Write the structure tokens for this entry.
Amino acid sequence: MPDETRLESPVAELAPTLEAAEAESGHSPERLAVPLDLRNAVRFKGWRGGLLVTFPADVEWEGSLDGLFERMAQARDFWEGAPCTLDLGARQLAPEAMTALLERLASDFDLSVVGVISSDEPTRQAAMRRGIEAHAEVPVPSTKGMAAEEVPVARYLKGTVRSGMVVEAPGHLVILGDVNAGAEVRAGGDIVVFGTLRGVAHAGTTGDLAARIQALNLRPTQLRIGDLIARAPDGGQPPLSKFPEKAVVEEGEIHVVPA
Amino acid sequence: MSNGRVIVITSGKGGVGKTTTTANLGMALAAMGEKVALIDADIGLRNLDLILGLENRIVYDIVDVVEGRCKLRQALIKDKRMPNLVLLPAAQTRDKSAVNPDQMRQLIADLQEDGYVYILIDCPAGIEQGFRNATAGATEAIIVTNPEVSAVRDADRIVGLLEAADLRNPRLVVNRLRPHLVKNETMMSVEDVQEILSIPLLGIVPDDEAIINSSNRGEPVILQEGTRAGQAYRNVARRIKGEDVPLMDLEEGGFFSRLRRLFAGAR
């Protein structure tokens, strides 16, 4: 078998970025009331199965809070109930200010703060007194501890997948090499082949029609996405494309388009 | 012990020239002075003895050795032309299950004990018991393929199975290439084959009518001076020994006339 490593990314699958959250709640950034510079002040990122909120050092506290709550309100459904970690940087936060923040996050957004990252010792102690995990800096994820309980986000494979081999992944599948004719690759999510795909590829095996199949050279025997099937044209392959291509589902059919 | 080489010659698909390749490479290595033993692992469908012209000398075979009816040395047939080449013939009356991988490994160890430096194993077609036996004791593999999709597909499967059996870095011999068919794009080129298999190329053997004649007469083609296939096999044997031998020019008219055409085309 080709060499293989599993990626246990601390940035949980499909980090819920602001854009994604806004798309989900149907709000566009233009409609937000808070000025742009403040909105950009607080950063969100999916992290350890929850939310990491970063407060930049150069923005004053009240202003960043306004931006935070405004954004939280826009994408309420998205964050609601998520375990949340606050990255306060070097900021010294008075215990009262922290209490106020935690209470508001809990009451308005049902968010429980499980961690605080602060380089300020008193702030960390204040957090710990409230039973919140405190770190001096963003902890480097230990891949060992995570492996046991988390489903791997992507399976990563280096080498040629040859005729007769079947490679499966519950999540995404990334192959650095060719997938030869007679081989089959299957993934619950997307399939990315950094090489030539000549065999059969099935993305979105659990029925996900948003899954895609992408390859530097896409010359498959057959492509399947969800329950859809497309096959190579009869009578020989068309000439090699000069650019990478991807197969996606559009209007209930598999289409191959430039990636 | 064991700085010897144990090389299995395999292909997946039948009829691509495994046996011819085994015979010629064995003969070529022996001609270079190496002590060579050939094992025909195609039990039940033995051919290697025919290609070598040694059929009429077989008394004992590999199954007789394994089942203890004779000593290994009694079964080895010394080649009539090369004194340092021996053949361990397959049994014709049994099938692949007559030998198991452990017995194969033991045979190889015994041959090495007797001082055979190159042991070439002619693998049967297919991916079943016979393939597993033939690859069991090998430390290197040569994949023989023809420039056609079915042979390449099977070769690809074999490379995968060899990897799974921890026989890494197999090398490729593309057999029966017809340069003029490649040129008018009716035959896969060596580049096409290599792009799919992505394993190192050990040699290219052109399709040569001399092979048919030599097989029927039991005279490996490398013994005939002036044949292109014979030269190709000699080159492969030298590369197996580690020599750096450039690929021979297969196209009619030779390298320089092609170069001239190239420049003529560029003008």
Q: What stands out?
A: The beta strands of chain B are 5-10, 36-40, 77-78, 85-88, 118-122, 140-145, 171-177, 201-206. Residues 5-266 of chain B form a domain with the Rossmann fold fold (CATH 3.40.50.300). The mean pLDDT of chain B is 92. Chain B has one domain: 5-266.
